[in-house]
Every structure is written in C-alpha cells, then in structure tokens.
Amino acid sequence: MVLLVQPSPGSDNTTYVVDVGSGSSCLMRPLLLSADPSNFVLGLTKTERHRLVFEPPPDTSLASSSDLANRAGGQWHIEVGHQKSISSSIAEASEPEISWYCQVAFKESSEFGEEDIIYASFAVAHRAYPTGFFWNNITCVRIFTVDDDLGNQQLERSKRPMYRIILHGNEVKKSYGAQSEVIKTLGSEMDRIRALRDIFGIKLQDKDEIHIKGRAAALKLD
C-alpha cells in the first residue's frame, strides 16, 4: 500500500510518498513527490536507492512533453536502484553504475476509502483459498537501524543503514541486502508466540496458542 502524506501543518501542501509494504527492496523512508532527478532516498542498505519517475499517458500529446505541470491521467513509478559495487561513489542517484527498475506504479487520483481497505484486507488475509499467502502463513517483519558501527552512530538515526528481522514459517531470519541468516528456528507454536512477543513487540500471551490450532497457518511440525 502506497500512501501520500502531507506532514506540514497549515497551507503547506508538500507531499511525500510512504510505503507500508514489507516486500523486498520496498521504500524505507519518506520520498518527496517529485520527479526531479536529484530526488532520491536511501534504501535498506548503502547500495540501495529509491526515486520517483512520472510517466504521462502514452496515448496523448503529454507523452512527448517535458512539462509535468499537467499530470492528469499519468502515473508515478517508484523505482529502486542498486549499485553494482559498494566501493563506487554514491553521491548521485543518476550515475550509470546504478541500475533502476520500476517497483510499483500509482496515480494521484487513485483514492480508497476505509471500506475499500477493509474489504481488500478481508480478501487478502481472511478469505480461505489454497494459494492465499496470509491465510496460509504468519509473517512478521520489523526494521532495525544498524547502530553498532561507530560511523553509523555519527549519523542521524533516519539516515543509518537498516536490516530486517523476518518471521516466516518456522524460521526467524536477519536480512541485510542480499545477505540473510537464520537466527532462530521455531520448534513449537509457543516458540512462535515468544518470538512475536520478544522480538517484534506484539502483545501476545502464552494462552493465545489456542487461537492458531486447526488453522492453515499453524506450524507444520513433524
């Protein structure tokens, strides 16, 4: 889900894009709604970038225009780029060593009400069907900043590199860029409850184990 937010009070309509998704390489920090080539933010790691590109409707005269003042009917692309080498310069997002690809597209005119979100949530997470990801799995993701490096400690927390802790199935993994490691294997539903409580801060009690019994997302243990 992509959200457009205007955090400044009053008449300031400065707009940022935020992504509440948990997918790989998703937007990690608020990104100014602007197609300026210098507008980019750091991703999860030092080698990852996110930027916005505006694409006018391809079947109109706007497609060949450089004027972005009229954005009717067009759509924004959130693009993610990765450096080919950590040692290369990261000063400019437009440097050729960064390869970009479109991650998600959206329109400013796309508006969803609370009921739309509720129905979509039901279809994704509560509808019983064999291939439903959230029906068949319990997945939890939490983002942490890398604070144990002296160089990172000198940066504002919002600008520090990050890593993910991911609970999926019977494993808890630490993911940093292309690298990942299993930090915990869950041997029971009680292990999963404790991981969700201790690592992810979810307020669960031991007795809540009863609510997963018989469900498709219950751990398949030998």
From TrEMBL:
The source's superkingdom equals: Eukaryota
> Any idea what this protein is called?
Arylamine N-acetyltransferase
